[in-house]
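request received
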Amino acid sequence: MRRLWYVMWKELLELRQDPRLFSIIFLAPVIQLTLLGYAATTDVKDVPLLIVDQDRSPASRQLISRFEASPYFSIAGAVGNVNDVEPWLERGKAWLALTIPADYHEAIDGGRPATLQIIADGTDSSSTGIAMGYAASLVNAYNQELARQRLLAAGQDAPPTAIDARIRVWFNPELESRYFMIPGIVALLLLVITTNLSSMAVVREKELGTLEQLNVTPITRWQLIVGKLLPYAVIGIIDVVLVIAVALLWFRIPLLGSPVLLFVTSGIYLLTTLGLGLFISTISDTQQQAMMTGTFFFLTPMLYLSGFIFPIENMPAVIQPFTYLIPLRYFIVIVRGIFLKGIGWSVLWPQIAALLTWGLVIVGLAVARSRKTLN
Amino acid sequence: MALLSSFLPTIMLSGFIYPISSMPIALQVITYIVPARYFLVALRGVLLKGAGFAVIAPQLGALAIFATLVMLLAARKLKQEWA
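response:
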């Protein structure tokens, strides 16, 4: 036990030597969460819209004013001819182009169906898909309104709607994508920071040649790895408190579940991220190598396969099994569940068990690998 | 440590995952210092839209300016350390 304590103390003293430590532990997570929290929105608004009004009538202007009034669109410009649309879409200055044909007002006034054309830039397929949905529902609502006005003008009563779907949204009633994203960013930041920091722990000794000295001390492999892990766990817990504070106090994310469970699961998650860092440290020869290995072989695939950005359900069936290897996958379900749904142990235990297993295995692997370097 | 401060911001602020036009204005301004932003627009333009030099010229220009600036900065830093 005393040996473990000495390894811990030695690591803490070494960490104190690093002048950048303060900014990495305290500033990086807070600044990054604040910035990225605002960036991570899948909401689509202010879609740049190009107007091609070939009609130039009160009727067409009324339609355009509908788009202007919508928070989802902002008018990027107007051209007179469909042939002028291409450069706008090509340069990305507009995502959608709304073409109103020259006979639009005649059709509307005459009670005949009018045709509109919407040209969309499909390169960013998901955002454009959402924007097209907004455009379609805007035109639809306007369409129904016109139809009603026509009937009323003809002295008839508007027919009652046949189907009336009433939608209730649970857990995130305002459909704020930020609420969904920020717990994910919390998980991601903890992974990037703690894994990177701890991946330096053992390899630093190799670079300095002090691993040979540790070799001749009676410290066991377990004591070395666990003694290295604990100081980083302290740092990790400070970061957990910081990022959760930013999520709650700055972004006002509701925490519906148990704060205790959130901290306990965060602790288990830190075991996986720090264990991974230590494992990377034992398989690397230099700090630079450790950083490269961590980023390219672990962090990047984890980020894309965790379900944080792309829903796992949408991935090809061949890829989906790989996501089970990623601790971030489990922790994202856990944080989102605790924050937004207020669910607890009874629902989350499979994720928690998976996370704990992953953490113990990776720490075990780090210990097993460290023997080779110690001998 | 440069990695720690550039890895996530590059992915999230480049417009790769989240549309820049949906971000708050202050953040949209910050995206201009992320070089991946320009490369992404140019790459999507060339690959998907068949855009030519004229179309992606602003992006190429921005990348060239960024490259020149960081190279100059690196050279200056190196000189300081050697002196």
